[in-house]
Amino acid sequence: xxxxxxxxxxxxxxxxxxxxxxxxxxxxxxxxxxxxxxxxxxxxxxxxxxxxxxxxxxxxxxxxxxxxxxxxxxxxxxxxxxxxxxxxxxxxxxxxxxxxxxxxxxxxxxxxxxxxxxxxxxxxxxxxxxxxxxxxxxxxxxxxxxxxxxxxxxxxxxxxxxxxxxxxxxxxxxxxxxxxxxxxxxxxxxxxxxxxxxxxxxxxxxxxxxxxxxxxxxxxxxxxxxxxxxxxxxxxxxxxxxxxxxxxxxxxxxxxxxxxxxxxxxxxxxxxxxxxxxx
Length: 279
Fold this sequence. Notes:
Layout: H1 3-12, H2 24-34, H3 43-65, H4 67-76, H5 78-122, H6 128-156, H7 168-194, H8 207-212, H9 223-232, H10 238-277
Protein name: DUF241 domain protein
């Protein structure tokens, strides 16, 4: 998913929302997410999106604490709150699984790093331990691709849109909350495209054929895709591989940390919605 497409999808979510004094803070944070202008499918662009989502959910929390918001949602919007609660579970599940995938990626990367260091000290060849570590990584990446596909399918079940309501304030609240969910879905989709990379980037040992043919690692490749080609082929040197492993460890670590922050905010928002519907 290119960032230009992501940007257009984010912008399209804002067209139906009507302005209201109570939504100014949240709309400002929404605009920040909608105007993300990253140029590559990299961890940096993902981090920008996740950081903006964290700020957005901080504003959402304040929005949901407003007496006017709570009154209109508890009096007229109970059905919508139920829908939001269902969607929040789907978003939380996506965050949880994605976070676990990144943590497991870190484990595999560190395992390979350890094998590379030991082999470098011993000198020469790849060694059985390194081959085993790489084989495990290849298997994990295949499973990651399957998990990402399932999560993308789950996100597609979250429906947006807007409707007309007899209560104008309720209509504004619902439109804004739907925009929040929509931008969240778009950012999560971009992450789920980033994590597995392209299908052709991982063909077990066959990837070495691509390396031997001097496959062109263009600027559109993510850090993980670049690492896939490096470890599955005949990498030029242990130092080169170690450098790529460090880059991935740092980038994935940053995304994992940001995901933890987003997950906590999703839990908090769900608690606020439950509080509204219980009164």
